[in-house]
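Researcher: Please predict.
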Amino acid sequence: MISSLFGLGASIFGPKVFSFFNDQNIHVIHAMPGRIRLQCDRWKDKVVAQSLEKNLSDDALVKRVKATPVSGSLLLEFNVPHLTQEQFDKVLVQAVEAAVSAYPQMESQIMDKMRKTVQVVDGQIKKRTSALADLDSILVLLMLGKGISGFSKNPSFSSSLLFWAYNIITNRKEMDDDRYY
């Protein structure tokens, strides 16, 4: 019963959820005979721009393709002065498919922001402590303290904290050793 309800809910809400992620919101910026400029915020990536150019340049209708990752725009010059609705729809579908196929090769924006945040916090800690401490050393001290103090109450959790502290220390040492050779 529950699996049936879950399946029913997934069939109702699934397409709406996935359409949110695949929604390209492509805008026609400029059009004239034989030429069109499209723009999409999700095309503002070098990997996506390369995929768009590669995939659309193979189309017999397309004479020239130029994708600009800074603005997310795509300039298409065609071999014919006018496109039918079917031809235009085909070009749009190709553009969406090219962009979506490039997503697995892209860097996750959330992970990138988290890395940058950690770098900023690490830099601030080093600046405030005159390079006496950094984020890794503070985390190791916290894990060691919590691991040792909580060992009698929860040995498995404390062991994992001690294990991760050990790994951070030894991996940091290996990175430092590699830096000098």
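Model: The CA atoms of residues 37 and 75 lie 4 Å apart.
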